[in-house]
Amino acid sequence: LTDYATPYARHTLFRDLLLLTERARASWLRGPDGAHAVTIDYPPPWPRPVAGTLREGADPVGTFDAILTASLHRWTAVSAGTFSCELSGGLDSGIVTATAAASRVSTATPLRCYGLSLTGPAEAAADQRARRAELVATFGLRDTEIPMADHLPLAPGSCRVDGRAPVLPWEEGYYEAMNALLERARADGTEVMLTGFGGDELCSLRPSELRAMGRVPRAIASASNMAPRGTDFLTPFAKATLDEVLDRPPRAPSCESSVEVAALSAARYMRHGLWPLHPLCTPELVRFCARLPVPWRAARTVERQLLASHGVSPQVTQPRFRDDFSPALALGMRTHARPLLTRLFANSALADQGIVDGDRLRHGYAQWCDTNQRAGAQLFYAAASLELCLHRMA
After folding, report:
1. Is residue 16 part of a domain?
2. Is the pTM of this model over 0.90?
3. DSSP assignment letter at 253
């Protein structure tokens, strides 16, 4: 509720619901009374690789491509004709799609791709459409585009509101649009969906490297600009829990955020009979990129050069706009979903449990709806999704 995030850990928001995290081990024990108990033991932390020095004649772009292609072959060899790609038009999904298209054994049938067309500023939306169109044309893809404006979060009649899909606080706010995309993909015969998850994190710079470049590490910059902890509608009791130490798992082979998004989105794919694959999250590719010298990771140079080597223009490899889903969330929370949020907040289960101040929540939401701000949409969505989840469980 304070930062629109659900901790990735063995303990979830619900006392009796545990999460088996990566490499963890679950044990079922039967007690003397016949009752079963489940325990989850975390593994040791994965060793952190350090940046190295390139050997003479090394080819970082070619090696990146070879590792990614080899990872894909583990799956495409057994799922030929049944795998498709998510394609936003961004760098991450572009790399995966380009590599998948280049590594296909048979080209008799075009590779299918699916993407969401963004709402928001006209120039940014047009740029995204142009990038997707170039990628589709370059690789001869069979494209399906789902307009986000037609599937806004928690809109009347949508899958989560009418009960066709569950409402869980750790699933993304754009569930409705992704649900439509995955439904279409499964109807087209897709069984395996390739994503671009993890691309942002592959080439991240360490704090010491940022300082050496005269830049402030993100965590320090965020802390210096941080507002008072907790939202206005949290009670003192709820704000006090923000100081508790979370029981997080140790370091994973892939970046924490990559593991988290893969884990918390898995059920969404599998509800549609799809197996999600995240080629940019494999331990071998993560380690390779972490070992690259700073110039190859800074500004994601190795990734941009790889995509350029597949024949796409700087419009795709150096986009002017970053894909932004927040306009769709803000529009949905302020318009289509407003009657639902108003009802939920008027009969707040979170207020009944002493987590939020109901009056502050209702007043804050009404005030926000009367503005044109995007900031705040995530917090009201987080409150609404948790409220709806609790009401369904009652």
Report:
1. no
2. yes
3. S
